[in-house]
Design goal:
Layout: H1 6-27, H2 32-56, H3 61-88, H4 92-118
Amino acid sequence: MIALSKSQELENRTTKFSINLVNLCKKFPRVLITQNIIEQLLRSGTSIGANYREANGASSRKDFRNKILICKKECKETEYWLQMLANAADDDFVSNSCRILWKETHEFNLIFSSAAANTKC
């Protein structure tokens, strides 16, 4: 079995996060009050992994750091939208799923903060 690098592991983890987020949003009823929350959540949440992959293909340390900072920014926005969706939910399953995804997003934020701080331009 081939061992994955830390960057490959994080790429896989952000991909799994996006898939779980999409699956949650597919289950959530789209009514007037939640439609915008779901759309915003999907945009910010799925862009975390996409931006991380871009960072791994960066052309310079400065480019890498900038893309990592975008990942961090998208994490913070995703945390916000997950809180809004959890508050709009009448369902304990949805609220619990939002909490689990929020925790993962928070961990990503810590990882990206560390990566940005340790990348010298």
